[in-house]
Amino acid sequence: MVDDGAGPPTIAQLVTFLKQDAISTYFTIHPNELSSPSFSPPSAWLPWWNWASSEDANGEPLWMLLWRYYTAPPYERAAQDFKAIPMSVRVMVDAARQLRLSRISRVEEKGKHNGNTNGMSPKKMHEVERMTDFVSEMLSGLSVDGLKRIQHVVDVGAGQVSAILTTYYLLRACEDSIAYLSRALRDQLRLSVLALDCSDVQTRGAAKKEQKKGHKSQDSEAVTSEGTLVYKTVNITSETLVRATTEWLERVTTSEGSGRNAEVPVLLVALHACGSLTLDILRAIIKQYRAATSAMDAWTPRGAVIVGCCYNMLHAEDRVLRTDASDGLILSANHLQLAAQTPDQWGTSTSKMSETKLAIRKVAWRALLEGLLAQRAQTIGKPPSALSDKKRLGRLNDSVYTNWDTFLVTAQQRLDASFVGLGTTERDSVLESRISMFHVLRCLLGPVVESFILLDRLEWLRNELHDTDLRVDLVNLFDQASGSGRNVAIVVKPAHSDCEE
């Protein structure tokens, strides 16, 4: 990833940029709309709209030239090839580059802890190792006595999923919360850990892994000579998180002979807290910290390392927290979907670029299909919505996108629709190029949206804790090239810490 060396953007700069009329259209218009016979591009699009109708660059789609410009170091952006890109587009892309937070990891790579992957993917192993190392340094490098004594950690599961979703999707969404991190914190750092998860299947699966390893397991608790690990299934909110932690500490402090839990400092961690779960954790920290300072019967949150994800699952009220600084900016579903894009990583390998090309082709071809459906609707005198109420295209195998004819035949079968009589169903290469260019431009704006979300959370939490001894920072914890798109952690720790990121 290229780091331009500029300082981090401010919320005001991000809001001003995202609210521009010329920028907002990329979030209010869906790619499918571009294939409508009645669509007319906004005037601000015309420079690239006309350019995208020209021939491919060096046998490659034109969007790749734009992407290379976005990822090129500053000294290469004056290259002759890039001058073919309309000036207004280059200006927009330059602004998008400058208004994104740097995502280069600042955490030192320690190397693998052991050769046993325990079923983890390389991505998951990278994340668990980095987070475990960071927590270790955080706990050992702090000068505040209260934090040096931390022995209790709550690992908050990443699977806070709506009940209306299918069981399959629930398990996929909870995949990251299978207690890999919890076990690493227990086994390597000798901590007492409470692992909370929304999925009872995941919780029981994690406990079963412990039994297979020979760990003592009773009432979802696994004990080793290094530490303890308790599994609990709970529908996580800020209230239930506080309650579950309190109940756990009442039990473990008694067994440890520690007596009342008023003196117990606690660290909260979350590896990919989906949607509003990130905010639930932070609200629990705020609530419990204030309760602990005014009463002697509560545990005290003294640190946190929270990595969020799945912005598309945010509750509406959690999309923008600092409304006083947002100047009326409203994040739509399109904003949240695009915030997850990592265009800097599209070309990190040949296979990654192949995946990117396929993903963009899917967007373009589905949009072209929408245009054919609109033409068919006009032919038979029905609105397009009436043709898709009972039939959905759904997910198609990647092989279907090998060629246009295969895609079209499959789509007609799925939708029970015939395009006979439309005159032509040939793939419109010019419109496909325009749709692809539009989608890539949207993706290049995605990191700006995520930067706003992260800074909004940072400033909101700092305001909430301004009168406490806790400090809040953003730390680039993971290497995005490892596949960890969401690599920024919200870190909370005492203000007088001498621990360095």
Automatic annotation (TrEMBL):
Membrane spanning residue stretches: none
Residue ranges of domain Methyltransferase in the record: 123-316
UniProt cross-references to Pfam families, sorted A to Z: Methyltransf_32
Name used for this protein in its record: Methyltransferase domain-containing protein
